[in-house]
Amino acid sequence: MTIRPIITAPDPRLKAVSKPVEIVDDDIRKLADDMLESMYAAEGIGLAAIQIGVPSRVIVMDLDQKDGKRRPRVFINPKILWASDETTICQEGCLSVPDIWEDVERPSKIRAEWLDRNGKRVEEEAEGLLATCLQHEMDHLEGILFLDHLSRLKRSIALRKLAKAKRLKEPA
Ligand code: NI
Fold first, then answer.
1. How close is the Cα of 120 to the center of ligand 1, in Å?
2. Active site amino acids
């Protein structure tokens, strides 16, 4: 498994629409493993393949790392089948938008389907953090960042903050 660098906004690659996975094979499992290693190394709870520069519809997640145990999940070609009218506002962050946290409103519950790391179809109803995180990661597959859900003013403030932090990290 290899830790790969995570791309940060405003990198244009983050706006790419990712392509469906045709066959869940060892290459895809290797990609998912690399994504998980990269996610854990960055102390994140979710990651989409495009965040390490691969435009494939693969998402990894581990929402339950509290006791030091890992419970990794892999979502391939995920689709939302149903979303509730009821919405929830949740504070979101993103490894591609470091150190910025903003409230985002999304459907509270969703029913989704995907393929697991063995290519088996899974259908599940999600709420709470899983629903929020799945929708956030699935946005990445469409080239959408959580910042795109904010008002124009909030988004431009966040992007300025991000640019400033990048300049401080990479002195000329
Ligand atoms: Ni993200």
1. 25
2. 137
Query: What is the tens place of the pLDDT at every residue in 53-112?
Result: 999 999 999 998 888 899 999 999 999 999 999 999 999 999 999 999 999 999 999 999
| Cα-to-centroid distance, 103 and ligand 1 (Å) | 14
Q: Looking at this protein, which amino acid is placed at residue 41? A: A
Any residues with CB less than 8 A from the CB of 39 and at least 6 apart, and which? 45, 46, 47, 60, 62, 95
Residues with a beta carbon under 5 angstroms from ion ligand 1: 94
| CATH for 12-169, options being 1.10.8.60, 2.102.10.10, 3.90.45.10, 3.40.50.2300 | 3.90.45.10
d(CA 64, CA 126): 15
pTM: 0.94
Separation of CA 157 and ligand 1 centre (Å) = 18
- Residue 43: count of CB within 10 angstroms of its CB: 8
